[in-house]
Amino acid sequence: MSLRLPAAVPSWFEEWPSFLNDNVAPSCALGKENEGSVCKWVWDSTESRWLANASEWLLAKPLAVVLIVVVAMLIRWAIYRTIRAITSVGNGDAEATTPDGKPKKKPRILRPFREKAESALLASGLMSERRAQRASTLGSVLRSVTSVIILVVAGSTILGLFDINLAPLVASAGIAGVALGFGAQSLVRDYLSGIFMILEDQYGVGDIVDLGEASGTVEGVGLRITTVRDVRGVVWYIRNGEILRVGNKSQGWAQVVIDVPIPFGTDLEKAHEVLTEAAARLTEEEEFKDDLLAPPEVLGVDQMTATGLMLRVTVRTTTAAQWRVARELRARISTDLAAAEITSGIAPIPAPPA
């Protein structure tokens, strides 16, 4: 009567007690299919049946595990090195020069994506900070994805060496993933929204944005949180998943719209002429010449209410200068209307008789 042990025990125990016969070749060293195996090599070298049977667990599989771990670490190191190379500032196409004549470059990873930052940022440090933060975030995502993939592949390969059935583990991981997904929906939504915001360059460091309840200058863009400082100096931390709309006032160009209220009975032709001259003088000054992208336009009467008329003046400017141009144009219009003895403002509604 032979003694057989459970299947989890190494196969060389199944031959108990015959494996004690050291002069008999083990089954793993017989046959053409075992030519070149570790068992065959150990048997030919030592003629020890015990060592030949145990070589698979004591030598072959531990070496295979070490080899898999080393290869995985080398692949991870190579990929990390590549990610650092394409995300570091200073690797990419030169777009401009610094004040000392050195070329400014953007990371290679940003080359395929459209950059929506205004041209005024190219001459400031905000542009490089924006690019560095954007590239750093993308690099962090790539490194995390790389680590997870390499860990899963290496782990499943090692478990396969020991003939462990991976189906229950995959099923358990799937159930755990679903449970985690339901429990952390908001967190996942924040990260996914952050990734797409960065890829699409919806806004960046230095942009002036309107995010709904919070608006101001963007100071930081992360995968989960966007940091905005408003005009009063208050810092707002907004979860990316809660941002449903983005109004960016720093992309492309800006349109300055100024509504000038005047009372009924005002000479409209004279008022139109005063507004046109005030706007035209602004375009001739060196201080504002480069900020205006198109000549100012006086559109005429835009509204007519029960208390007066509203004349509208528009001018297209760079995004960085829109508020400075608007303040200056309002001041000049007010001064010129006063000089022309034209009342600026809505006439008050008289109180009804008692």
UniProtKB/TrEMBL annotation:
One Pfam family in the UniProt entry: MS_channel_3rd
Keyword Manganese listed: no
Localisation: Cell membrane
Chief location bin: membrane
Any one cellular-component term (Gene Ontology): plasma membrane
Superkingdom as given in the UniProt entry: Bacteria
Residue stretches making up the Mechanosensitive ion channel transmembrane helices 2/3 domain: 145-185
Alphabetic keyword roster: Cell membrane, Membrane, Transmembrane, Transmembrane helix
SUPFAM superfamilies for this protein: Mechanosensitive channel protein MscS (YggB), C-terminal domain (SSF82689), Mechanosensitive channel protein MscS (YggB), transmembrane region (SSF82861), Sm-like ribonucleoproteins (SSF50182)
Topology term for the membrane: Multi-pass membrane protein
Annotated ranges, domain Mechanosensitive ion channel MscS C-terminal: 256-340
GO molecular function terms listed in the Swiss-Prot or TrEMBL record: mechanosensitive monoatomic ion channel activity
Domain Mechanosensitive ion channel MscS: 187-248
Transmembrane segments: 58-79, 140-162, 168-188
InterPro entries on file: LSM_dom_sf, MS_channel_1st, MS_channel_C, MscS_beta-dom_sf, MscS_channel_2nd, MscS_channel_C_sf, MscS_channel_TM-2, YbiO_bact
Entry's family note: Belongs to the MscS (TC 1.A.23) family.
Protein's name in the database: Small-conductance mechanosensitive channel
Organism listed in the record: Cryptosporangium arvum DSM 44712
